[in-house]
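Notes from the 1:1 (GR / supervisor)

We went over the backlog. Supervisor wanted to see one worked example end to end before approving the batch request, so GR pasted a single chain during the call. The sequence is below; no edits were made to it. Supervisor asked that the structure be written out right there so they could see what the output format looks like.
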Amino acid sequence: MRADLHASPAPRDLSSTVYARQELNFTLSPSTRLLFTAQADAGVEQQGMLQSYAIATLEGYLSSEINGVYGYEQFMSTLDRRTGSGSEFLRGALDTGTGVGTGTLSASTYTSFTHFTSAVPEPETYGMLLAGLLVVGGIARRNRRAHSRQTRQA
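Structure output shown during the call:
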């Protein structure tokens, strides 16, 4: 299972989340132990993001009945990354004991990021403002000179 989320810093506020989950239901015979192992890889690159993270989870749940008494067993193994990248084996085990067990194994990935634009203008914004003011000033000066020439000639 794989869930990827790729984004570059955006010119406006942006938030996104990707979630993927797979489940497997099973039945185990008495006196059975089931071992689970999955390799999880997670990587997070901040690159202008306010908050970003990736989570990979392996979960197992088993319920059984022995002589009219119900019981359950569960495990959860997680790889959680807020920065950088990492790889880890997620592991878990379920035992039925002397009764038949029914269970669920699930693997999930969760990726999220949030990007907020800055309320303070970038230096390029000031440069464009100054260039615009110079152009407007130049046009006003040219119009004023042309108007004064017309006034002198009349």
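Supervisor's comment: The chain has one helix and six strands.
Batch request approved.
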